[in-house]
Design goal:
This protein has 436 residues and is an alpha+beta fold. Helices cover 47% and strands 11% of the residues. It has a 5-stranded mixed β-sheet. It has a 3-stranded antiparallel β-sheet with strand order 4-14-11. Helix 6 packs parallel to helix 18 and helix 16 (309-319) packs across helix 18 (389-406). The mean pLDDT is 91.
């Protein structure tokens, strides 16, 4: 079936298949998609793909009918009951009221002082990043510019020593790029430069068992990321003994009527920070840059009218969302846009499809930095609306201010290379050139 291409990660090696999505949506807003065995994945039961803006928003806003917890939030079912039980403990894979408690504790940790301090650091670090490459005349935008700012910001938020930040890079690569040979074996951290707890974590990675093909276990399991969970536990204990002004120190000291956050809860929240907080922005920034480079008229308009940058950022987020989809599971028999969905079936909402729904967006395949209104769903909707949306926008504005004002004549310098993933809309490499 043609719709199976929507599931196959290999389809995304050249980017999101927007033509396929548009064709499917023109036939129906919801499609049944088979899950054949592909790229080492075993066959799955299939799922409902939701492609309209209205229905995506409804699913995200009704957790009692469409659960994040029952089967977690990835299309593929976890391989074992133990793996499912493990990932269900993550905030991303919880429903109210359990999700509400953890989100409230985390929200309290982002104090006005902490956010203000972060925003000052973001602007300073964006400048430092461009300082390092401004005289080169060329660079890989994805690895040399876009990847650094989210890593530095996350390290500050999480209280991770800066010399350990490449551990965050490796962990997020291994999770998001599990089907991509370059990302699944990511090993950029240098133990010689890290802290003692980082070196211990790195040694644990060396002892993680691999299959006959040399591949590490599924990173959705505790065994597959044993090094990360060890580091998170060590960091929690260290920050309890030596609290700083970072968000994590505040989080660990915050309590409600149910008590303080436990180390086990912190470990799963650390996963959410390290992966979701890093990878989404790391892909969103180069996605936005490519949209500008492939639409030179819009790039020139932005250069001549820099006050349009906030609007341009929103259009980048709509046009090239870093997260392609999220899964929910139907808790009961339910009708959605005329389709009868049975309890227990997977319901996968496609942000990439909702953001180009012609019923909501005029000329949706056109990149327009002055688009208004711009009701994209890149940050989701409902109880799981992205907590980091404000900081993501701040980082995008900071880095694009630097790039657009200090890299004159910026242009593509080769073919972009996409991540092989049906989940993250990732640009592994984006070669650029500019005048020096």
């Amino acid at each position: 079936m043609e719709s199976t291409r929507l599931f196959d990660p290999a389809t995304y090696a050249d980017g999101v298949p927007y033509e396929l999505i548009a064709e499917m949506r023109s036939q129906a807003s919801i499609h049944w998609v088979e899950e054949p065995a592909v790229m080492g994945w075993s066959e799955g039961p299939g799922y409902w793909a939701v492609l309209s803006h209205e229905s995506v928003k409804r699913v995200l806003r009704e957790p009692t009918l469409f659960s994040s917890h029952m089967g977690a939030t990835q299309i593929r079912d976890p391989g074992t009951a133990d793996m499912l039980s493990f990932v269900q403990r993550m905030m991303l894979n919880q429903d109210p009221p359990e999700h509400t408690r953890l989100r409230r504790l985390l929200t309290k940790s982002f104090t006005p002082r902490a956010i203000s301090k972060l925003e000052v650091s973001i602007r300073s670090r964006a400048m430092e990043i461009v300082d390092r490459i401004v005289n080169q005349g060329s660079a890989d935008f994805s690895s040399e510019i876009a990847a650094e700012l989210p890593l530095m910001t996350l390290a500050e938020i999480m209280g991770v020593p800066e010399q350990d930040r490449m551990l965050l890079f490796d962990w997020s690569n291994r999770v998001i790029g599990y089907q991509d040979t370059e990302y699944s074996s990511s090993d950029q951290f240098d133990p010689a430069t890290g802290t003692e707890m980082a070196r211990k974590a790195r040694s644990i990675r060396d002892n993680i068992g691999r299959d006959v093909n040399g591949q590490m276990p599924d990173p959705r399991s505790r065994e597959g990321l044993a090094d990360m969970y060890f580091y998170a536990g060590e960091l929690a204990e260290y920050r309890r003994r030596h609290p700083g002004e970072d968000v994590v120190s505040t989080l660990l000291a915050t309590a409600d009527e149910e008590g303080a956050i436990t180390t086990a809860e912190f470990e799963t929240m650390f996963f959410l920070f390290a992966v979701a907080g890093n990878e989404t922005l790391r892909n969103g920034i180069p996605g936005g840059m490519l949209a500008l480079l492939e639409n030179p008229g819009q790039l020139q308009k932005l250069l001549s009218e820099p006050h349009l940058l906030p609007s341009a950022i929103e259009e980048m987020l709509r046009f090239a969302p870093p997260v392609i989809h999220f899964r929910r599971t139907a808790t009961d028999n339910v009708e959605l846009d005329g389709v009868n969905i049975r309890a227990g079936e997977k319901v996968v909402v496609y942000h990439a499809a909702a953001n180009r729904d012609p019923k909501i967006f005029n000329d949706p395949d056109n990149f327009d930095i002055e688009r208004s209104p711009n009701e994209h769903l890149t940050f989701g909707a409902g109880p799981h609306f992205c907590l980091g949306a404000h900081l993501a926008r701040s980082q995008m504005i900071a880095i694009f201010e630097q790039v657009l004002t200090r890299l004159p004549g910026i242009a593509l310098n080769g073919k972009p290379e996409y991540l092989v993933s049906n989940f993250q809309n990732g640009l592994k490499h984006l070669p650029i050139i500019w005048r020096t």
